[in-house]
Amino acid sequence: xxxxxxxxxxxxxxxxxxxKIKADFDVQNDHANERFVGTIEYPEKWNIGVIVGAxxxxxxxxxxxxxxxxxxxxxxxxxxSVIDDMPDVDISTITKMFYAVGFGSVPSWLKPxxxxxxxxxxxxxxxxxxxxxxxxxxxxxxxxxxxxxxRTACIAINKAVHRLNKQFVAISCHYDILEWLQPxxxxxxxxxxxxxxxxxxxxxxxxxxxxxxxxxxxxxxxxI
Length: 224
What we know:
The protein has helices at residues 16-25, 59-67, 91-100, 106-109, 118-132, 147-164, 177-181, 203-213; strands at residues 3-8, 34-39, 48-52, 135-138, 167-172, 185-188, 193-195. The chain is an alpha/beta fold. It has two domains: 1-39, no CATH class; 43-213, P-loop containing nucleotide triphosphate hydrolases (Rossmann fold).
C-alpha cells in the first residue's frame, strides 16, 4: 500500500513580464509548485492496475516516486529487425508473445523499430516488456494510438497478463481503457483516490461507469 507526498518545484524566472504578471495577479513563486498526496490501495491479489487522470495531474511523477524510474518501460532499439531486439529467449517464445500482444504481422517482425507504425511500436514495446519483466509499468499507455488500436491492445494485454500471471500497471490520460483493460485497481489522479471492484463479475459495469463519469455519466464504484 504505497503512500506518497510529492512536492514538484518549478523555478520561476525574474524577467520583466514574469514580475509584472506576479504583481498584477498576486502570484508568488511557490504558487508554481505542485503537490501530490495520496495512497495507492492494492487488492489482496491483482494482475492489472491503472493510474489515470488528466494531463498535469501527476501520473508519471507519482509512478516514478512509487515504482522508481527504472521500473517504467523505456527501451532502446538498435538492430535492423525488431525480432533481434528481443531478449535472449527462444524464437518460439518471442513469436508467441508478439501474437499475444496483437503484433501478428510477420513481415513487420523483420523491420527496424523506427519504420513501424505507432500502433506497431506500442505492441513491440509491450512484447519486449512482457518478455523481460514480471512487473511492468507502462507510461503513456495507448496515448498515441487511435482508440480502435487501443481497444485491441487492451484486450490482448488483459489476456496475456493473466495467462502469464504477471503484474501490469498502465499510466494513461484515457478513461476508455478502464472498460477494455479491466484492471483490478485504479488510482485516479484527478481525485487522488483509489478504487477497485470486489467482484470480478461486477468489474465491467463498474469500470464502464467510471469511464462514463469522465464524460458526466453516472458512477458506481467502491471508493477506498
